[in-house]
Amino acid sequence: MMTVVEEMLRCPSCRGPLEKEAGGLACPACEIAFTMLDGLWDLLPPQSSDLKLSEREHYTEKIGYYLDMHATWRDSPFYLHYHESFLDDLRLLPTGSLILEVGCGLGTDGLELLRSGYRVVETDIAPGHLGEARRLHRENGYGDSCDHLLTDAEFLPFADDSFDGAFMVACLHHLPDPLNCLREIVRVLKPGGVFSLGTEPNSWQNHTIYPLGKLLLKAVKSIVDKPIGGEEMVSEADKLTEGFSRDQLEGLLREAGFTRIRLKPAGYLSAAIFFVSTEFSQMVGRNLRLFPLEKAAIPLDEAIGKIPILSRYPWHWNALAR
Ligand SMILES: [Zn+2]
User: Fold this and answer.
1) Residue 175 CA, ligand 1 centroid: distance in Å
2) Distance 18 CA to ligand 1 centre (A)
């Protein structure tokens, strides 16, 4: 039924052992049954919040849109450089180590780790995205070294000390209580395990260029006669988030129980070029990219990140914590 993770599965509510019963799994202590949804084990606790359930729906219904979007940026030098950067932090673990991804989305980062010889447990709240991740991994021949489970990131259905490493990419800001999730990751990691956080948004943009950009877009829309942009595709949590300043993110990681924390700036100019061209492409309904410019900006971004005052204001954060 599961190849990698079966022994370490626990009830997401009470963390007690699960029992197999006809057609599913059950927690005898909580008297809750868990069944499959679209061929995926659904291990959400009964108390999952409205915001998370709305994310589940959004990222399932709009799966076609996200697949199309990913195809437009998977060759982006900005995207590739900063994803390789946090994946390389995990590659410090010996080959064959067991790595958990929380909020795996389309599973593209997990595929890179499978290719590097790791065993991976992929989790996400949205069946649409998780099903795509499983398809991707099976198609590439990794069906035996990867499991896919529907979970709530704040109630992970695993025993304590289960994983050698864990990672999370652009997901923490989707959660109502990020600290709960980080505490859960500390709990399921083995002592000394590695946690890699990838491309989590900084907060300064929300007080500066995002409101300005919205005003500008409104102005353009009032001048141009025809409608610009299609249906709104931003999830509820993306609308609500304010990102994380360096102090906020470091504070959360420390409070969750990590002791060795390294925050790494992930993009300045290359990120701005990436996001402006993404927004513009969506507005005009055509894929307009500036990959050579992004590529040229990366060495400059690495240098900017070493300047103390500017090191607080990258577009995104990558982080390595133990
Ligand atoms: Zn239970």
Assistant:
1) 22
2) 8
Angstrom distance (rounded) from CA 177 to CA 240:
12
- Residue 183 belongs to what domain range? 6-321
Cβ proximity of 82 and 267 under 8 Å: yes
The alpha carbon of 21 and the centre of ligand 1 are apart by a number of angstroms equal to 15
Distance 44 CA to ligand 1 centre (A): 11
**Per-residue confidence (pLDDT) for residue 1, from 0 to 100:** 63
Secondary structure of residue 52 in the 3-state scheme: helix
User: How close is the Cα of 9 to the center of ligand 1, in Å?
Assistant: 11
Q: In whole angstroms, how far apart are CA 114 and each of 7, 91, 219, 245?
A: 20, 11, 47, 32
State the pTM of this model.
0.92
In a domain, 1, yes or no: no
pLDDT tens across 80-128, in order?
Answer: 999 999 999 999 999 999 999 999 999 999 999 999 999 999 999 999 9
Query: Is residue 302 included in any domain, yes or no?
Result: yes
How many whole angstroms from 25 Cα to the centroid of ligand 1? 11
Please provide the average confidence, as pLDDT, over all residues in the chain.
Answer: 92
231 Cα–ligand 1 center, Å: 40
What CATH number has the domain bearing residue 263? Answer: 3.40.50.150
Whole-angstrom Cα distance, residue 253 to residue 262? 10
Q: How far is the CA of 11 from the centre of ligand 1 (A)?
A: 5
